[in-house]
UniProtKB/TrEMBL annotation:
Ranges for region Disordered: 163-197
UniProt lineage: Bacteria, Pseudomonadati, Pseudomonadota, Alphaproteobacteria, Hyphomicrobiales
Domain of life: Bacteria
Identification of the protein by name: Uncharacterized protein
Length: 211
């Protein structure tokens, strides 16, 4: 057996870890984000050596690259240790909470969905960098467990109804005020009309009877 045949028969270097299902918070979008985060921490040439399938993260490299394999394995292990605290991205929080982008923006602005800070990235195909809010996974989990989006939607619907009621009342008062103004003008009109001049009034004044 030649040395080349011996190397080809040697088992590849491999390491496996269970996928952190709890960190994904039941979201396939979040799970994909976790995979991308772990892969992004590896050197460019080793990223294709990482695979995620069937709830397992696997790192496999050819025999003879022991040093690179050891470094890559340490990177993956370190990433998994802190993966539960990985900030939740906008698309992930929408998928986890089953909310729309409009709801996410509204609830972030009014503080109900608390931001954990911002992240700025340069997206492919865009000239300018994009800045967006990220969220603490523990806060997102709490919002999910308490079903707060349902409560917030009810609050928003009640606020819309109240605003419409106030607007209708204001419009009614405005119309009533305009109606009173028109009626007042009509009542004052006769007193403001030109009085008819009596015949012979000039002679009456000439005689001086009013002096």
């Amino acid at each position: 057996m030649t040395s080349a045949e011996s190397q080809s028969d040697s088992p590849p270097l491999a390491a496996e870890w269970p996928f952190p299902v709890a960190a994904a918070l039941g979201s396939a979008v979040r799970a994909t984000g976790i995979e991308r985060e772990i892969r992004a921490r590896l050197p460019w040439g080793l990223r294709n050596c990482l695979a995620v399938a069937s709830g397992c993260i696997a790192l496999r490299m050819p025999d003879g690259e022991a040093a690179e394999f050891a470094a890559a394995r340490a990177i993956v292990a370190t990433a998994l240790e802190g993966i539960a605290a990985l900030p939740v991205l906008p698309g992930e929080v929408e998928d986890i909470l089953t909310i729309s982008a409009r709801e996410r923006l509204k609830w972030t602005r009014d503080g109900r969905l608390r931001s954990a800070g911002t992240r700025t990235v340069k997206l492919r195909g865009r000239a300018k960098a994009v800045t967006f809010h990220v969220f603490d996974p523990r806060h997102v989990e709490d919002v999910l467990d308490r079903d707060l989006p349902t409560i917030w939607r009810e609050e928003d619907a009640a606020a819309i109804r109240e605003n419409r009621k106030r607007a209708a009342g204001k419009a009614a008062r405005t119309r009533a005020g305009e109606g009173k103004a028109v009626a007042g003008t009509e009542r004052r009109a006769p007193s403001q009309a030109v009085r008819p001049r009596l015949q012979g009034w000039e002679a009456f004044e000439t005689e001086g009877l009013l002096r």
